[in-house]
Design a protein that fits this description.
Elements (H helix, E strand, L loop, with lengths): L5 H8 L6 E5 L5 E8 L9 E2 L6 E4 L8 E3 L4 E4 L12 E9 L2 E12 L6 E2 L3 E7 L16 E2 L6 E7 L6 E4 L10 E4 L10 E10 L4 E12 L7 E2 L3 E7 L7 E4 L2 E2 L7 E4 L6 E3 L5 E4 L7 E9 L11 E8 L6 H5 L35 E4 L8 E4 L6 E3 L4 E4 L18 E4 L5
Protein name: Neural-cadherin
GO cellular component, one term: catenin complex
GO molecular function: beta-catenin binding; cadherin binding; calcium ion binding
């Protein structure tokens, strides 16, 4: 064979080798089936034969003039193949010579129109499945997992790597017409043992030995096993009868063993008290009577499926300072009791708004204005928040473009605002 020009040799160094399929031919001669796009240039890497020091050569036949095999086993075209698109496959015989003797290998080359080459709709995919689900559970989030090729040719999908301990199996689609591939669990998965599986899946057009690979990441999600547990089974608070409206009476809290954030609800609506779901703070929302109130509260998590705690009790005693003995007035109160001191600070009802991610794409955009009860009121945020800012007039503005993926698990932007001015309530 004539020496390759330097420019062509450079192409060979950076070539990409396509997939291949092995079978056997007459008299146990191994058969390698490969595909090459019809517009492949001379020097394109069709495949690379296994090299262990032997010498390669092509036996002469009517197809061998179109190809060459290099000393390291690289098989390439040496001429234009476009006229052979969709023609019957070409057969090459590769001779391998070594100190141990000579052997032959058959290579069947399919010249395929590039538009009909196997390709996945994406290079990477991500799916998820909950731990402890029964065998046969379908991995979610893989609706676009399929490869395209000639719709009349059978397609076979296989795992190339990453299927640890045979954790998953593939359900072969009934047709090649954009039918999504199903991946099922082969065993009950445990997130504590393995949280993520990084798989490589290969799609092969059997008739043309044409294949493509895709990366699939499967995340094993935590199954919500535990309901939140309140830190106490009974809470007790005391408040003066003249406590300002919307003052905080006390706070309840809970722990979730799965790491989820508990939210809090009254078992039934109460005319005098309310609870902030995210914080567990109990607010005074109406004038109380001189008596002891009993509230029943539940806490639940936000995971799937949600778990709800058993109800726990909160007792709130309302007292009159005029009726208290002087000794009790002077003594310090226990933890969780509200000091009987008239304060100027109060808490207004929590406001909630719903927006799309795109609504907050422009910094400086005013999303809403805080309600003013007096024209001289001014506003200041309790602390800096990445996504929003509040000016002194009460305009809530976009600070940085909102990114849904960077928000916390609750997908909310929470902040407190201090209000100052005359007759604040």
């Amino acid at each position: 064979m004539q020496p390759l020009p330097p420019a062509l040799f450079f192409l060979l160094l950076s070539c990409y080798c396509v997939g291949r399929v092995l079978s056997s031919g007459p008299a146990d001669v191994p058969v390698l089936r490969v595909s090459v796009p019809h517009d492949a240039y001379p020097g394109y890497c069709i495949t690379r034969l296994h090299y262990w020091g032997q010498a390669f050569s092509l036996l002469d036949n009517e197809s061998s003039r179109l190809f060459a095999v290099l000393g390291d086993g690289l098989l390439m075209p040496t001429a234009d193949l476009s006229h052979l698109a969709d023609s019957p496959p070409l057969t090459l015989v590769v001779k391998e010579e070594s100190q141990n003797g000579t052997r032959e290998q058959m290579v069947v080359v399919h010249v395929v129109d590039r538009n009909r080459l196997v390709r996945f709709t994406q290079e990477t995919y991500t799916g998820s499945v909950y731990e402890n689900e029964p065998v046969g559970t379908v991995v979610e989030g893989l609706d676009r997992l399929f490869a395209t090729s000639d719709p009349h040719h059978p397609m076979v999908y296989t795992f190339v790597s990453g299927n640890e301990e045979d954790a998953f199996s593939i359900v072969q689609p009934a047709s090649n017409l954009s039918t999504a591939l199903l991946i099922r669990t082969n065993r009950v998965l445990d997130r504590e043992q393995q949280e993520v599986y990084d798989l490589v899946i290969r799609a092969t057009d059997v008739e043309e030995a044409n294949s493509a690979d895709a990366s699939v990441t499967i995340v094993v999600d935590n199954l919500n096993d535990n309901a939140p547990v309140p830190d106490r089974t009974v809470y007790e608070f005391r408040i003066p009868e003249d406590l300002e409206m919307y003052s905080i009476v006390g706070n309840v809290s809970a722990y979730d063993a799965d790491g989820d954030r508990p939210v809090y609800h009254l078992v039934s609506r109460h005319p005098v008290f309310a609870i902030i779901p995210k914080t567990g703070q109990i607010l005074l929302i109406a004038t109380p009577e001189l008596k002891t109130y009993k509230l029943s509260i539940r806490t639940q998590d936000t995971a799937k499926p949600p778990r709800v705690s058993a109800p726990f009790s909160v007792y709130i005693e309302v007292y009159s300072e005029e009726l208290l003995p002087e000794s009790e007035m002077d003594s310090s109160l226990e933890t969780n009791e509200v000091l009987p001191v008239r304060q100027k600070r109060s808490v207004r009802p929590t406001k909630s708004y719903e927006y799309k991610e795109t609504d907050g794409s422009k910094p400086g955009k005013v999303m809403f204005q805080l309600d003013k009860k007096h024209p001289q009121e001014t506003y200041k945020m309790e602390g800096p928040v990445k996504w929003v800012e509040v000016d002194s007039s009460g305009d809530v503005k976009v600070k940085e473009p909102w990114d849904y993926e960077q928000l916390g698990k609750e997908k909310t932007i929470d902040f407190w605002v201090f209000v100052t001015g005359p007759n604040i309530n």
